[in-house]
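Lab manual, section 2.4: Encoding a predicted structure.

Procedure: take the sequence of the chain (261 residues), apply the prediction step described in section 2.3, and record the output as structure tokens. A sample record is shown.
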Amino acid sequence: MTRPDEHGDESAPGGRAGEVAVAPERRLQLGMAGRGALRWVAVDITDIVREVRDRLDLTPVAAAALGRAVAGASMLLRLATKTPSRLVLDIRGDGPLRQVLVEVDEEGNIRGTVGDPRVVVPDLPNTKLAVGNAVGAGNLRVLREFGDGGSYHSHVALQTGEIGDDLAHYLEQSEQSRSAVLVGVLGRKSGTGPLRYRCRCSRERLQRHLVLLSAEDRDYLAEEDGAIEADCVFCGNHYRFTSRELAELTGEDEPGALSLH
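Recorded output:
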């Protein structure tokens, strides 16, 4: 249960092309108490949030919101009676942040993004970051996918936008489980289960999407020199395909080339 240092350094280099989006691992710990009447889970993802903060150049309030959602998604996955192969936590509000989206799988791989990574809102009177004001009113949605191909989704209205309160409300309303959710800073490392920030994006994956586009859509996306550029919203990796590469991928003539029949 953690969030990043809320008033840490905002500077970041942004995405780094060609690198695998993997952060130093952190751990998740879970157990039972009260002779099985109480289940608990704790997660330390400080370094993971610092990694994505730097990659996406997040402001402190955006990083805090994403960190809370990453911790919450990790806990929801492990608290499920049947562990899903993939869980998506999608928070959408009418505040300036707009959206917080996190994916986590059963192997502990995590990725996430926010609607506006550069959002700024005034701090609360107690000097804490106003995550609730950044998120606003809206809905929290959880999607679970299972290895057998089945899936299940549910949603609740946001209560405060502070994410911890909203996760507790979700567990009570959708899972019939009265819960307390705290998202704060842990003072030391602890736990048993590995977690890491890892993005599934790749040049090959993007190539497959480009091939499926119509020629008109590719022309719309192309730069003046005919190249198409794209940035991953989850890790910030930058990809560029030249007009010659696009022609080879699609079997079409390169713009400006002479075609003989």
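Check your result against the sample. The beta strands are 26-33, 38-43, 86-93, 99-105, 109-114, 138-145, 151-157, 193-197, 228-231, 238-241.
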